[in-house]
Amino acid sequence: MAILTPSKPPRAAARTRKDSRSTFSDQASAWLNHPLADIVLAATAAGLLLALGSVMVWSASTVFSYTQFGDSFYFMKRHLVFLVVAAVAGWVTSRIPIERVRALGWVVFAVAGILLALTFTPLGYGVGGNKNWLNLGGSNSMLRLQPAEFAKLAIVVWGAAVLANKRKLLEQPKHLLVPFLPFSLLLIGLVILQHDLGTAILLGGLVVAVLWCVGAPMRVFGTLVVLIAVGLGTLVLANPSRIARIGGFLNPGSDPTGINHQPMQALYGLATGGWWGVGLGSSRQKWGSLAEAHTDYVLAIIGEELGLVGTLIVLGLFLVLGYAGVRIALRSSTFFGRLVAAGVTSWLMMQALVNVMVVLNLLPVIGVPLPFVSYGGSALLANLMALGVLIACARDEPDAKAWFARRARARKKTPRRRASAVLPAR
């Protein structure tokens, strides 16, 4: 007869499970209390989004690349070049001390304003009815910029610097709003003149988010909400194309080959994917049905090829990035650091939320890319520079500064080996 090993009593088994959960919780808490935990969280989440985005840009763009340029890797090769340049820019930005970032506030604002103004010169050209690009080279040149992407970074960095300089006066509405609000409206006005309403809405939301993070009173928010609603309604009613988009959104079953074509095809892609997707590279929507498959609607291709699981992974990575950004904002040692970290986090989370809601047909189509995932050199460069600023804020946390200081002292104490080799005695 086989000797049976007696099983643990129910109470003992329950205690074991409780102890294991407690141990995991303690280990997680200990890891999150590490001085570099915020840097690792933000960099890892963004890095995984970039890696997944590169794969999906390749998968979603192959058909369009071949039909338009005769090269299935046309967009992928450009995307990799943009990624390398953006990664270098993000790394450089992350190494700049946060006080120097603060000192560069007005410089960043001036550069963004000049770039936006240049779109109204012969250097500017339009795409899809929006004259919001700068062409610094010839046709098919990679030297093209969308200045509105850098206006987001300008509002965050410059706005945080201006508000930090007036911190003791922010209880007075005139000091809270001037010069932050009128100068921000200047950038937003230039974007509106480019006919890029989607980006203008995001910039307006970013202004509201910065004011909320700085603790503006509710009466200021109420006034801003009314002004934004009136301005947005006026801009929509003044443009027949925007009216058609709103009408299509309110009646999603109408005009399936016209105004509602993109939203319906995106939903078809998500529905086709099921739990696990149809397989990487096996999308049907990218064969001409979904025109913006590698840009604004890349999440629909992710849902189709990688299924609900792949989509939830993307959303989970954004949640991790948002969690890291909130931690950095709460733990930063300076008011400027807290405000700029909160602004960057608000920007990335707000833009990701808008893109997801557009793909799910919960918002009208406004042409907003998914941060770190969608194809687009200007957006990728601005996103990684914003991530660099966020990491610079994390490096400025008291515990992180102390950790880097200890590391620097340890390096100084460690003797360096001589470059010349010492010959052994015979």
Approximate strand percentage: under 5%
* Element order: H for helix, E for strand: HHHHHEEEHHHHHHHHHHH
User: Which bin fits the share of residues in helices?
Assistant: 55-70%
> Rg from C-alpha positions?
25 Å
Q: Which class do the helix and strand fractions yield?
A: mainly alpha
Total number of helices: 16
Extract low-pLDDT stretches: 1-6, 418-426
Q: In which order are the strands of the major sheet placed? A: 1-2-3
The biggest sheet amounts to: 3 strands, antiparallel
Distance between the termini: 72 Å
Descriptive account of the structure:
The chain is mainly α. 68% of the residues lie in helices and 3% in strands. The chain contains 16 helices and three strands. It has a three-stranded antiparallel beta sheet with strand order 1-2-3, with helices on one face. Helix 2 packs antiparallel against helix 3 (74-94), helix 8 (180-193) runs antiparallel to helix 9 (197-214) and helix 9 runs antiparallel to helix 10. The longest helix has 34 residues, at 298-331. The termini are far apart.
